[in-house]
Amino acid sequence: MSATAQTPDPDDILVTIGHPMGDIEVSLAAWIATGPGPRPFVRPIRARSRLTGQPLPLSIIPLRYRNDEQSREAIDNGHLVNPWPDRSPQSPDPAGTP
């Protein structure tokens, strides 16, 4: 965390993404850039500091990037902008497949 800005550094925060094939750990910066990909409901389940290894609360992740029920509802209700609009579960498949 930057001492001057008091904002977390997304490259210092590691998030564990719960995935059906096994959990993976990526930087928050990578998660923000890529999102859940083709599995719209995978989400961060843990966070820790890369620098110290200490666990961090999930609230360190901005709400719109948590991809949990609360964040998806806020996006659906128009309270937050969808950070991955082309990967929304409500978006039609570009190939036209149901």
Note down, in words, how this protein is organized.
It is a single chain. The protein has 98 residues and is α+β, with helices and mostly antiparallel strands. The longest helix has 8 residues. The chain is globular, with a radius of gyration of 14 Å. It starts with 12 loop residues before the first strand and ends in a 22-residue tail after the last helix. The N terminus and C terminus are likely disordered.
Topology of this protein?
Blueprint lengths: L12 E6 L5 E4 H7 L8 E7 L5 E2 L12 H8 L22
Antiparallel strand pairs: 1-2, 1-3, 3-4
- Mean pLDDT metric: 85
Query: How many DSSP E strands?
Result: 4
- For the report, how would you describe the main beta sheet? 4 strands, antiparallel
Q: Unreliable stretches, pLDDT < 50, 5 or more residues? A: 1-5, 90-98
User: What's the tally of helices?
Assistant: 2
**Widest beta sheet: strand line-up:** 2-1-3-4
Derived from helix and strand composition plus strand pairing, the structural class reads alpha+beta
Radius of gyration, CA atoms, in whole angstroms:
14 Å
Secondary-structure element order, N to C = EEHEEH
What amount of the residues lies in strands? 15-25%
Region (Disordered): 71-98
Please tag this protein with its features.
single chain, 98 residues, alpha+beta, 4-stranded antiparallel beta sheet, 2 helices, 4 strands, globular, disordered N terminus, disordered C terminus
